[in-house]
Amino acid sequence: MKVGFKKVAILLAILSVFGGTLIFADSASQKVRVIVNGSELDDGGIIVDGKTYLPLRQMVNSLNALVDWDNQSKKATINKPNVHMILFQDKVIFGNVDKGNKYTFNVFSQIDNLKTDISAVKVSITDPYGTEKVIQSQNVSITKDNFWYRTEDIKYNFEYAGKYAVRFYLKTSASDDWTVVSEKLITSQ
To answer: pLDDT tens digits, residue range 75-93?
Structure first.
């Protein structure tokens, strides 16, 4: 089988251009490790032409902020409300606990610097093994820049040693996913 010189030259030229493009694309962008509050993001980021690009959803979630994406205008709006949580057992501030004991407490939250409307709130507690229990969830219609939210009392058994996370979630609309905007840790020993 005789292959013509022209065919071999054309094939080599095509492969050279294709291979060179792949090498150039790889050298034109660099991967970036992104660490937020001591935890590395799964996707990280990239540098292209001297600019750093980060994964928006992961960054916003790591910072306990809300993001609103408008696909039509290709605009992302990020809102980071201030959310302060205090746990109360009766009228006493509640914190670290003894393993194996059941406690009755409630969560008081103060939210300000809110730059978007809110349709629902949720407060939950997650044990050291990842099992979540909803303390309270409620549909709301909040259009002001601040509000207070207090849960009803919950009886909860801290059966394991370790860190329990009390989380405060918001939804900007009924169709949105829950977004964690604050977290408080309780240590059980």
So the answer is: 988 899 999 999 999 889 9
Burial (CB < 10 A; 0-12, 13-18, 19+), residue 121, is buried
Task: Write down the CATH number for the domain with range 78-188.
Answer: 2.60.40.3880
- Cβ atoms of 171 and 118 closer than 8 Å: yes
Does pTM top 0.90 for this prediction? Answer: no
**Helix or strand holding residue 180 (H, E):** strand 179-188
3-state secondary structure (DSSP) of residue 61: helix
The pair phi, psi for residue 129, each rounded to 5°, is: -100, 5
Which residue, among 91, 105, 173, 90, has the nearest Cα to 136 in the 3D structure? 105
Where along the chain do its domains lie? 5-63, 78-188
